Amino acid sequence: MDFYSSMIFYGTISLLTALNAECSVRSRDIRAQGFFACNAVLIPSLTAGFRYGIGTDYLLVYYPEFLNLQNHIHYRSRMEPGFVLLNRFVIALGCGFPVLLFLVSFLTILFVFLGLKQYRKKLSVGLGMLVFMLLYYQLSFDIMRQAAAMSIEFYALKYVTSRKLFRFSALTAFACCFHLSALILFPVYFAHFLYGKPKYQAPAMISYAALIFLVLNYNRILYPIVGGIGSLRYYSGYLRATKSFSFSIGVFARTVPFLLPGFLLRRELKRDSRMFLLFNLLIMGCIFRLMAYTTIYFTERIAYYFLIPQIVLVPTYCRRLKERKKTWIGIAVFAFVFFLWIYDYFVMGSCQTVPYQSIFH
Length: 361
Fold this sequence. Notes:
Blueprint: H1 3-26, H2 30-49, H3 58-71, H4 81-92, H5 97-117, H6 125-140, H7 144-156, H8 158-161, H9 165-176, H10 192-195, H11 201-216, H12 218-226, H13 236-239, H14 249-253, H15 256-264, H16 266-270, H17 273-294, H18 299-307, H19 310-323, H20 327-347
Helix pairs in contact: 1-2, 1-6, 2-5, 4-5, 5-6, 5-7, 6-19, 6-20, 7-9, 11-12, 11-17, 17-18, 19-20
Keywords: Membrane, Transmembrane, Transmembrane helix
Protein name: EpsG family protein
Organism: Caproicibacter fermentans
């Protein structure tokens, strides 16, 4: 499959997934709802399961790990227990690596769909699913474990605003079974008063300013502290600054188009605690992305947990701006999502998912 065929292929999968997701919440017939919902989850999951050799860590990490677990009974994996258990489950069934890929993708897409469905009265679920497919689906071919953890945490955010600590903790623990980085979102529950309520906006802004200051002075302030924590010494190579400080137009291009509409719609967002929390998480994600561009590239991975609210906020922007008769701004935001999809995965070749290759060739 060549470059353009791959673009058409991924685009078609994205559109079919989004269309089925939208139909599942619009249909009044319960059987039709189930049919479309299954399609919305199965289409991208099967596509992920049938792939071969694509995704940066496919042949470097995940396939060799599967073979080690399959061929060596006493092999001790360094990966998270939930992912290892899923590998062993697939092996016990006598199935191959494609089944593992399918199950991980199924888990990821399922929680994204369920998470979006919570907001079905406030936005287009299909559009939210399309934004996910364009920004994160091909990324999930590379960061399989983290993508699963991200989707679980995205769904779990409902328990932050409803103040159900046990359920949020249980889902966070479940997410950590696939990637320990999911712990980064756990403090959000206790900081809800700061980022989920408009009356504490001033302290929240101060916290953002402090975070930006720490990011820009990472080598002098944060690294000596973080590097001195014994449990994090294994990750010292990731935590060490990899870039000298310099502003890049890239970080602004990837953040400002998603932030400006939120500031424009700040009154509407303040009236909805869930949307207000998501927007504040997006701001934090943009700050972590700034860190990835100026000091440590690895923080891009951390930023994803805070940036995934884009899949809710973009369709929310489109609906709210349409009500304000400023539809063109919503169209411009979505056009930028489309541009990032083309630029990242097809022009720059991020995650090595192009051209698409399947097990049948």
